[in-house]
Amino acid sequence: MKCLEMAFVGRWDNRAADERATSETLRIGSQVLPLWRGKPQMSDHGLAWVNADDTALRHAGETWLYLGRQDGQPRFAADISTWEPDGLDSAALAMFADPTEQYYPGAEEGTRFAELRLAMTQLDPAEAALAATARGVFNWHRSHRFCAACGQESTLAMGGWERHCHACGAKHFPRTDPVVIMLVAHGNRLLLGRSHGWPEGMYSALAGFVEPGETPEAAVAREVLEETGITISNARYLGAQPWPFPNSLMLGYLAQARDNRITLDDELDDALWISREELLAVMAGERTHPSPARPGSIAHAMIRHWLAGHV
Fold first, then answer.
1. Could you read off the pLDDT of 210-235 as tens digits, one per residue?
2. Tally of CB atoms within 10 A around 199
3. pTM for the whole structure
4. Dihedral-angle region of residue 302 (phi above 0 means left; psi in -120 to 50 means alpha; beta otherwise)
5. Is the peptide bond between 246 and the residue preceding it cis, with omega within 30 degrees of 0?
6. How far is Cα 292 from Cα 204, in angstroms, rounded to an integer?
7. Quick one: CA torsion of 236, 4, 118, 35, rounded to 10 degrees?
8. How far apart are CA 19 and CA 28, in angstroms?
9. Using one digit for the tens of pLDDT, what is the confidence trace for 171-198?
């Protein structure tokens, strides 16, 4: 599959891992991407970077991440989630894709904090990758404040790419969870499912976490069987996508179903078979149910390639 069809798979100039230990010395003159509760600051033209002395960054404290170099400049991200906007809609923050936007007082006109899931196709590949990396690493920091070895609070180190425990000396590194996501075909039909809490009518490829001691191919077979009661064969790898919602690496597969009788378990809200012709109508906007996977996602790319006969 072509990388340009999926968000977050691009690269920037240099992650500059060799500069992480001394990255604090690079802050002066750098460009910084503020994030608020996982939302990057954006403008109508892409990510809205600020200078390292921008007033919004006072909310970040030590929560800075050195991203490396892009266009000849050091690039950082800073988590300003301690800032409390006026009129905050807490219910919207818990939605599958929060449509609300937040505006920092005094920020450049037109800049706002916006949901990355909704804006991922509007960013160029390098900027989308930078924003996804920052969101994913900050997600990890928020959920791993305390040392897993001794329980004491740890601190950021190595430009935000590690956490160190000064009580016991343990070092901790950002976590990425491998997830298989699979198209299951049976003749001219695909098996799609929907999770609890998804937007009304939304269906996508089945997916699930790879368990310890398991290959991705074994996870494909297990997850399909657990969720729908269907056995599969010939799981074939198609491609991968980093997915910072919250910290996953999506591994895409195509598998063939040996039977077509669906037996749901409680992991899914629903599952259905849909024909190539019906799915073409969905993707063309000629049919409203089910609603398709979101453009920019690996599920959307896999479905398009299956419809075109490329996989």
1. 999 999 999 999 999 999 999 999 99
2. 11
3. 0.93
4. alpha
5. yes
6. 7
7. 110
8. 14
9. 999 999 999 999 999 999 999 999 998 9
